[in-house]
């Protein structure tokens, strides 16, 4: 089970890590794609656009481009085919941009796709957006400084720059078919400047992924992404092992504890190794085993008590059916012999001893065959004990018993305490009169058994264990015991037990 849990945890770590890496790569590709894909394609199209306009203007205006000429392709209103003012989206299948001619005012401060013809003296001659780049104004104030510097070199320069109207990609091309323009071949125009807004949006990662293979260096980027995904596998396994090792160890310990409980060992305890769900499960498991152990101990105690009660009842029956009958017969024979020979002291002694033995036997039977609760309540059970001593032993019992409701353990303990106190009074105190009372007041049940027998000294050592049993039972219930006695004036046992 633990191995299966560890494997599932490791697999989940790998899957989650892969999902996170794929998501991050998709976001990076989506947001960085303009630089990786569109920028390279757009830069090439800008170079082609600047070169194309340079050649077209040289052919169309051999004497020089008239100042204020509106460049660009006619557009419907001020919006191009992309639907956004001044934006000429790259044509995936073309090498140039369709630059819209924006004759009217341009609202807003966003960058636009534009073409500007610049004279040798650095002034704007013509443009596709005259309201943004008006003729006669110095190009150095309108165009990126890098573009002005690049216009003095031969080649196909280009780059990106930040302008007052946003970031753009740009390119310049000398006037003519290529290289430096011939002197006087294109009038005042020295070079053509082309720009397009810098692509900064989110792109479809799948499209970026497919186009990376077509870009220089794109294959290396794709290989790096694949290598990162492959490297995640051992990393996920390592993190899964490290993260699941302690959890698996705790689960295995819990499994061993459950097997021990299944084998009958209810003394197993688990230390709570955390405050998480598994830690609470360990704590609850320990509480459960302790409760089970306590319940089984109580069940064994009750079973032992039931067995003891059954054995006492069996012994009581044997004594009643055998020994008591013999003692009764012996007393009857001694009584007959005394009547026949009144002066025979031996016969009188036999009659007296047999009568005392029979009385002791009846007391023992009353102890061996105690009254039970039988669901009738504590007061009726105590009343039955009092009646048994009166009927079997001829002891007068004054009973004052309130009908109180107490938990079952308290009922059982008070019943046994009453039996023990009455037995001690009759057997050891030779009492012929008892007073038994029970009442409830201030959250306590008070049980008192008083006899009018010979009494005893509570401080003196005693051979029997009856008082010890009474004290032990009361201590288990959290109560108190008071014993008031002295030689010659009887004894009183008062028990107070707290009840809810």
Structure description:
Strands 2-1-5-4-3 form a 5-stranded antiparallel sheet. A 5-stranded mixed sheet has the order 6-7-8-10-9, with helices on one face. It has 500 residues and is α+β, with helices and mostly antiparallel strands. It has helices spanning 2-60, 139-142, 145-150, 205-212, 218-262, 277-340, 345-368, 378-393, 408-427, 466-476, and strands at 114-119, 124-127, 158-163, 166-174, 189-197, 396-401, 433-441, 444-451, 480-485, 491-498. Helix content is 51%, strand content 14%. The chain is built from 10 helices and 10 strands. The model is unreliable at 76-90 and 177-186 (pLDDT under 50). 26% of the residues are buried.
Q: What's the CATH H-level superfamily name of the domain at 22-221?
A: PAS domain
How are the strands ordered across the major sheet? 2-1-5-4-3
- Poorly predicted ranges: 76-90, 177-186
Strand content: 5-15%
CATH topology of the domain at 22-221: Beta-Lactamase
Order of helices and strands: HEEHHEEEHHHHHEHEEHEE
Radius of gyration: 56 Å
Overall pLDDT confidence: 76
Please tell me what the overall shape is: rod-shaped
């Amino acid at each position: 089970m633990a191995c299966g849990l560890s494997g599932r945890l490791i697999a989940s770590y790998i899957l989650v890590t892969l999902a996170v890496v794929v998501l991050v790569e998709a976001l990076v590709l989506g947001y960085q794609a303009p630089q990786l894909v569109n920028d390279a394609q757009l830069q090439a199209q800008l170079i082609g656009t600047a070169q194309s306009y340079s050649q077209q203007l040289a052919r169309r205006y051999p004497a020089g481009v008239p100042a204020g000429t509106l460049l660009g392709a006619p557009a419907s209103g001020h919006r191009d085919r992309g639907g956004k003012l001044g934006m000429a989206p790259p044509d995936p299948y073309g090498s140039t941009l369709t630059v819209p001619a924006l004759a009217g005012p341009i609202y807003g401060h966003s960058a636009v796709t534009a073409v500007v013809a610049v004279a040798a003296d650095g002034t704007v001659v013509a443009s596709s957006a005259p309201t943004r780049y008006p003729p006669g104004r110095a190009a150095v104030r309108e165009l990126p400084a890098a573009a002005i510097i690049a216009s003095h070199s031969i080649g196909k320069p280009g780059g990106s720059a930040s302008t007052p109207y946003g970031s753009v990609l740009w390119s310049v091309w000398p006037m003519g078919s290529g290289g430096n323009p011939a002197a006087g071949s294109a009038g005042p125009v020295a070079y053509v400047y082309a720009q397009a807004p810098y692509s900064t949006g989110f792109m479809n990662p799948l499209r970026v992924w497919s186009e990376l293979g077509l870009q220089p260096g794109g294959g290396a980027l794709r290989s790096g992404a694949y290598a990162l995904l492959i490297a995640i596998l051992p990393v996920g396994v390592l993190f899964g092992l490290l993260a699941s090792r302690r959890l698996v160890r705790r689960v295995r310990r819990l499994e061993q504890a459950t097997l021990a409980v299944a084998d009958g060992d209810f003394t197993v305890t688990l230390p709570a190794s955390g405050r998480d769900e598994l830690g609470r499960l360990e704590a609850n498991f320990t509480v459960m085993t302790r409760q089970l152990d306590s319940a089984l101990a109580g069940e064994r105690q009750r079973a032992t008590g039931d067995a003891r009660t059954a054995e006492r009842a069996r012994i009581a029956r044997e004594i009643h059916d055998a020994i008591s009958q013999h003692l009764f017969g012996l007393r009857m024979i001694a009584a007959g012999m005394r009547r026949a020979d009144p002066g025979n002291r031996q016969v009188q002694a036999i009659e007296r001893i047999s009568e005392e033995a029979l009385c002791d036997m009846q007391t023992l039977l009353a102890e061996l065959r105690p009254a039970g609760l039988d669901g009738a309540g504590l007061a009726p059970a105590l009343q039955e004990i009092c009646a048994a001593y009166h009927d079997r032993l001829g002891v007068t019992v004054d009973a004052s018993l309130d009908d109180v409701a107490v938990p079952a353990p308290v009922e059982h303990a008070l019943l046994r305490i009453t039996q023990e106190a009455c037995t001690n009074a009759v057997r050891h105190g030779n009492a012929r009169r008892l007073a038994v009372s029970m009442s409830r007041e201030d959250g306590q049940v008070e049980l008192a058994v008083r006899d009018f027998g010979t009494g005893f000294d509570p401080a003196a050592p005693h051979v029997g264990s009856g008082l010890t049993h009474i004290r032990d039972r009361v201590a288990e219930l959290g109560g108190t015991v008071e014993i008031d006695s002295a030689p010659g004036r009887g004894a009183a046992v008062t028990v107070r037990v707290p009840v809810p």
